[in-house]
User: Fold this.
Amino acid sequence: MSGLHVTVVLHPWQTGREERDRLVGEASALGAPAEPEVLDYKGATHPAAIAGHLSDRLRERDGRQLVLLPTGTEGETIAALLAGRLDGISLGRCHALAVADDTVTARRAAFGGRVELALRSAARVTCATLRPQGEGTGGAGRATVTQVALHEPPPYPVEAQAADNGRPRVEGASVVVAGGRGIGGPEGFEWLARIASALGAGLGGSLPAVDAGWVPVAHQVGQSGKFVTPKVYFAVAISGTPQHMAGISPAARIVALNNDRDADIFSRCDVAVEGDWHEILPLLAQELERGETPV
Assistant:
């Protein structure tokens, strides 16, 4: 690899120090000649302003450029805008990257995680958002981080609105309560929402639960959804597919409730409860709402 330069871009809308460190560590492990440059953008700004600043910074550089951002709407927007400004390629939301002979290869999910695409780019500028898999590389501490202050408010009005009918978000939550296909309908998610509210937890769901309309897509956890970093992940009627487990921090302690003793999640969890959610969730919600179970 003769001249590939890797830049990691962090932005103000991130949540979760662990995912940030794993992204930087993954970039360090790509084997580029130099350690990756890490740009940490701060201030009241918007994705187009960051893309504009990046394009001015990278335009005059020699050699091929790989720009990595955290997975998420803002990161994907910056990547697409930057690629457009520099006549580059944006690979989208990837879960694996490799570099050989100045060519970037990537894998990303499509059709809600049901298909995996293999992508290849030899463009001068390649952009991608990346959610590293596994335990991470530990390379984050060796990279030098440059703080970049941008104070350029968006050129359009921004109004804060309550999202998803007030359901607790999963991003940054210390506890996440999530349901899967085995819930069988919206009733179970009403109980999960009550439990999440009592615990001050985030409410999540697997891809099948989102596809069924039982929980909004903004709450989807997994390879094609959100990556969560809670201390405790309470998984109810979730089978534990690799696609779903990819969205849960390896450091999270998993408590699983499932009526199938052969469910894969039982081999990945810290606490396993075999039982029927119809019987257990109402009792748990009522006890928590009475405040008799400290958390």
